[in-house]
Write a structure and sequence with these properties.
The structure is a single chain. This protein is an all-alpha fold and about 120 residues long. It contains six helices and no strands. α1 packs antiparallel against α2, α3 packs parallel to α6 and α5 packs antiparallel against α6.
Length: about 120
């Protein structure tokens, strides 16, 4: 189970508030849905930020480097494996430096296809 991100204190607070809102008579369900629409769970927010950063990095690479495209990377098994591993790590950390290092490792893998995982 180490592949799953650990919930942070903010995740537990979010779930507690959501549960409390559900207990409000007559409007609990609607208020809970509104709460979900207004506030993204911290893990979901982290996942969204990681995926956006990854997409931006891949887009930049495909524009700057000849022979690198989204289609080519989608067929590169080494890149896919590293991307999955990096994504799991990125979801489990809040350290911006670590996330930047993961993106740099993916970039290096995309540029140099014979790198070892």
């Amino acid at each position: 189970m180490s592949d799953f991100p650990n919930k942070q204190k903010s995740d537990h607070i979010y779930q507690a508030v959501k549960a409390a809102v559900n207990l409000i008579p007559a409007v609990g369900g609607s208020a809970s849905t509104l709460l979900e629409m207004m506030f993204i769970s911290p893990i979901e927010k982290r996942k969204e930020e990681w995926l956006m950063a990854l997409a931006e990095r891949v887009d930049r690479l495909s524009e700057q480097c000849v022979g690198i495209s989204v289609e080519a990377l989608a067929q590169n098994e080494n890149f896919i494996s590293l991307c999955i591993q990096a994504s799991n790590i990125a979801l489990r950390t809040h350290h911006k430096e670590k996330i930047e290092l993961l993106l740099s490792a993916l970039e290096a893998c995309a540029i140099e296809t014979n790198l070892d995982e």
